[in-house]
Amino acid sequence: MDEVEVVVAHRQRATLRVGDVFLKVDGDPAHAAVEVRAMAMAPIPTPPVLWHQPPVLAVAAVPGTALGVLGEPSPASPAAWAATGAAVRTLHDAPLPPWPGTRLDDVAAELDTECAWLLANAVLPTEVIRHNRAIAEAALRPWQPVFVHGDLQITHVFVDGDQVTGVIDWSEAAPGDAMFDLAILTLGHEERLDDLLTGYGPGADREVIRAWWALRSLTASRWLIEHGFDPDAPGCEFDVLRHNMSLT
């Protein structure tokens, strides 16, 4: 008999694993609907959809192992990172999803709101928040929308050797900024950016990627704290923000 493993669980959603089947339970049925549509459109490997009965989506496991985890060195080879970059480029070159993405004005408003919360609650030193807020400004520019995954964390990309075998968790997929995907994938893994861009090819803006590292870390911290995660764990969001203090 297969055991039931709780992969992740918080107030918004939970993911369970039973053998090679993942059951994703989401309080917002729109997330699973987007995920199913996005995986059908994506020109890169995705998990097979077994069935979808809101609020539950069942998908099959993808082969291979995750590219890494936040807070620990990635065990994947430079070639695997380059292959990941090539896969991301293939996604970004694909036709846009037909649903709307995040608006620039909304990103800017969220950044202001979350920085105000961090300052009011003294979660980090004032100078760390303000310095990273200034860095994040470079991301607040018009972008040419591409098909983005939208939550391309390092744990969401699976590889076998030097090949990408699957990309999971597509509920945030939409038209968006290509540099956002590249930044989320390398958040806390700045040392692998060169390998990723070797496969991705021309057009990446390192300043904007760095800006998204800061912006993502600032805007995600309150959600992580309120949902039982620790952005102050080694190598995670607060470390990214502190590290930026040493950069010019």
Q: What's the topology here?
A:
Elements: E1 4-9, E2 13-18, E3 21-26, H1 29-41, E4 49-53, E5 56-60, E6 65-66, H2 78-92, H3 104-120, H4 126-136, E7 146-148, E8 157-160, E9 163-167, E10 174-176, H5 178-186, H6 193-200, H7 206-226, H8 237-244
Antiparallel strand pairs: 1-2, 2-3, 3-5, 4-5, 6-8, 7-10, 8-9
Helix pairs in contact: 2-6, 3-4, 3-7, 4-7, 5-7, 7-8
What's the CATH topology label? Aminoglycoside 3'-phosphotransferase, Chain: A, domain 2
Name of the level-1 CATH class: Alpha Beta
Give the rounded overall mean pLDDT: 95
How helix-rich are the residues, as a percent range? Answer: 40-55%
Which class of secondary structure composition applies to the elements? alpha+beta
**Unreliable segments of 5+ consecutive residues:** none
β-strand number: 10
